[in-house]
Amino acid sequence: MARTAADFAGSRRVYRVQLHRHGEAVAYLYQRGIRSPELIEHMRIGYAPGGCLRGWLTQLGYPLQVLHQAGLVTGAGYDAYTHRIVFPLEANLYGRSLSAAAPAHRFLPGAKGGLYSWEQVQQCPEVILVEGLFDYAVLWQAGFHNVTCSLGVNLNARQFRQLCDGRRTVYLAFDADANGSGPRAAQSLACRLAEQGVDARTVALAEGQDPNSFFVQGGDARHFRSLVEAAR
Question: Among 34, 118, 120, 206, which residue carries the largest CB count within 10 Å?
Fold first, then answer.
């Protein structure tokens, strides 16, 4: 069975230590509206500068071949995650590139798992679902601790079952993409959830906005709460 970052506790520790050693990483988080030490601790946010993980894990006794199979090291032996803010997931690792020259999003091989931090919200009578981890971050920081994240608009079977398990209202706060893809995905998901008896409502953001940019551009918790209350 292939192993993932969840099998290498050392990788998470290395990334978390590196975060505050690199000013460009902290500056990027600040730019994206992430400023709370409590939030950074809650999400266990780290930074992959590149050039440090392979040496650390091989010193701990992990064979290079195993690290390559997990996706942490490239075939040439270099760290796979370089200049990326990293978020540990249930059984994977998400990396957001600081460089426009590299693909923005990166996951390790394998499934993305269930809804992000679902165990902390599954008993909530109202749940806010967002697409991305930066959306999750600004909402949690603003006091909306009933938020979860699907890591994209396409929910896998497990994520869909999680939303349908129990009586709750689900507020879909997807990106208001100018091309309409986010709103269409939210409406489609709302219909699917309604068929399962879930009270699903779509949160209407201004065109071109997502929850992260809403707060970065000056939105506040009171205004966002009014959007949630107006959701249909």
Answer: 34
* AA letter at 115: L
Model's pTM, two decimal places? 0.93
Burial 222-232 (b: 16+ CB within 10 A, else e): eebeebbeebe
* Bridge partner list, 126: 169
| Residue carrying structure tokens 């230590």 | 17
3-state SS class at 191: helix
Structural domains of the chain in order of their starting residue, each with its CATH number: 5-107 (3.90.980.10), 118-229 (3.40.1360.10)
| 8 A C-beta contact, residue 83 and residue 49 | yes
Residue 33 in tokens: 């509206």
Give the model confidence (pLDDT) of 213-231 as tens digits: 999 999 999 999 999 999 9
Q: Which helix (H) or strand (E) holds 172?
A: strand 169-173
75-121 tens-digit pLDDT: 888 999 999 999 999 889 999 999 999 999 999 988 889 999 999 99
Long-range contact set of residues 188-196: C-beta below 8 Å, sequence gap at least 24? 189/153, 189/155, 192/160, 193/160, 193/163, 193/164, 196/164
